Amino acid sequence: MTGRKKQDGDGLIATIDQQVLTKALAAVSGALPRRSQIPILDTVLIEAGAASLTLTTTNLDQEASIQVGAVIDQPGSLCIDAKPATAIMGRMKGDLTLTQDATNLNVIAGRARASHPTLPPEDFQKFSEVIGAEFEIAPGALASGIGSVIHAVSSEETRPYLGGIFVERDAEKGRLVFTATDGIRLATLPVTCNVEDSFRAPIIPRRALSDILKLCERASEPVTVTIGEDVVEVTRQGECYRTKLIDGTYPDWKRVVPKIDGATRICLPRKELMEALAVAMSASNEKSHAIRLTCEEGKMTLTARATEGAWAEGVVEYTDIPPAPEFGLNGKNMMQALQALATDEVTLAVVDAATPVRIDAEGDLVQVIVPLRV
């Protein structure tokens, strides 16, 4: 990869591998707004330093940036519309030569040519530096904490404090506890991570969670997390993601987790249970997804009835199924809870038809689903 000769008066001049640039654009695309009436928010800020390009996007609530190697013949900075730039450069091949003039960023790759109108980089609003409690965590541990409970995050706007994952410190056991609930179901998982006493328990919004998971997938070494006053920052080598936190007080979720003592524990093969549940859900009401679960010695029957009179029944036979009270659950919530597990067996702790059902498996993930009247 070779550069272009520097010319006085030019703006940014750089050469970069097409695949490197398009992967970088994809990495920061998560912070772009879904809809925006402000043109600068649809752009990616490109800054050329000594030997790298830094790409940054923001929707004012989240910000993503990544630094990639490039041959820089002349430093500079500019903003271009991110989506068309990604689409056009994604079709090019080989080394891309980027040359900035007064109004455009011109791109050359072999015989291919493209030009993108630019906006002033001064109009791009960056986040301020995040100052607060800082700690390192293995990317797999962070991804496990988020990925195991994300399905229980609320999507309703009436209770915004439930619209994210609550992360709190368990100082006694040296763990961080990730919890999500929408008021109907709950999932919580502790992961090993020692943090300092000044750690402030944040609520990380739903919008940011998938981007943090993707950053963890790209990380091969521990990531650094900084919890600021109202922003959390996750960084790995050459990449940074920031998001504003949800303002509010998270409910005392521990009170709704039922105790196992006195409950009927139903041990089931997870795969067979999911298959039986899928059969029953084929006839369930699309609004309530109500499923009736009945246990006899060695057998669980899952039944659903549609409003049109149709019904479907799935059966799981297993030696460790004891007689238990009949109860009802939201089949969709139950399926997502089972999908969050990776074990061969799962245990349902049932007290009665009115008490939340606790779902456990090998490991520390605990899930709770409020029963339905069926």
Automatic annotation (TrEMBL):
Keywords: Cytoplasm, DNA replication, DNA-binding, DNA-directed DNA polymerase, Nucleotidyltransferase, Transferase. It holds the Pfam family DNA_pol3_beta_2. GO terms for biological process: DNA strand elongation involved in DNA replication. Residues 254-372 form the DNA polymerase III beta sliding clamp C-terminal domain. It is found in: Cytoplasm. InterPro entries: DNA_clamp_sf, DNA_polIII_beta, DNA_polIII_beta_C, DNA_polIII_beta_cen, DNA_polIII_beta_N. Residues 139-252 form the DNA polymerase III beta sliding clamp central domain. One of its GO terms (molecular function) is DNA binding. It comes from the Bacteria. Residues 15-126 form the DNA polymerase III beta sliding clamp N-terminal domain. CDD domains: beta_clamp. One of its GO terms (cellular component) is cytoplasm. Forms a ring-shaped head-to-tail homodimer around DNA. Belongs to the beta sliding clamp family. Confers DNA tethering and processivity to DNA polymerases and other proteins. Acts as a clamp, forming a ring around DNA (a reaction catalyzed by the clamp-loading complex) which diffuses in an ATP-independent manner freely and bidirectionally along dsDNA. Initially characterized for its ability to contact the catalytic subunit of DNA polymerase III (Pol III), a complex, multichain enzyme responsible for most of the replicative synthesis in bacteria; Pol III exhibits 3'-5' exonuclease proofreading activity. This is Beta sliding clamp.
